[in-house]
Write the structure tokens for this entry.
Amino acid sequence: MGRVVGPFAVKGWIKVQPFTQLPGGLLDYPVWWLGRQDGWTPQGLEDGAVHGKSVVAKLERCDEREAAAAMTGLEVAVPRSQLPQSAEGEYYWADLVGLEVRNLQSQVLGRIVRLLETGANQVLVVTGDRERLIPFVSAVVVTVDLAQGEMVVDWGLDF
């Protein structure tokens, strides 16, 4: 749902780059899970606000700038069960990561390793024989099959 980018001010607040559609969407969850692939820790949200395109937040038991600075780089997550059901044709980024990407000629381009927000649209980062940046737009993405773990795109090997 986001990533801690650093401390904010001096009283234990953190600055978060949200991965939610609306920056303030992260503030709807009273408990955040902070961590990395190797482990997660729940943290209660005391207070927070949208700050430009970022979110600033005060978490429980984080009262000093040094404690906030130690959280830099941690991912922010919430349990999947707390998220609303996605609409038809909409996907959570986490659902797309790991999908195998093929083009219309059935050539494997690789697997989605992450997504980027560029402002204009989201971009799939696909790694295979090399890294490819593929726009996540309807003109390029032909099908997404979460059950089969694959995505078909109108994208050549030479792009």
Residues 65-69 form the longest helix (5 residues). The two ends are 30 Å apart (CA to CA).
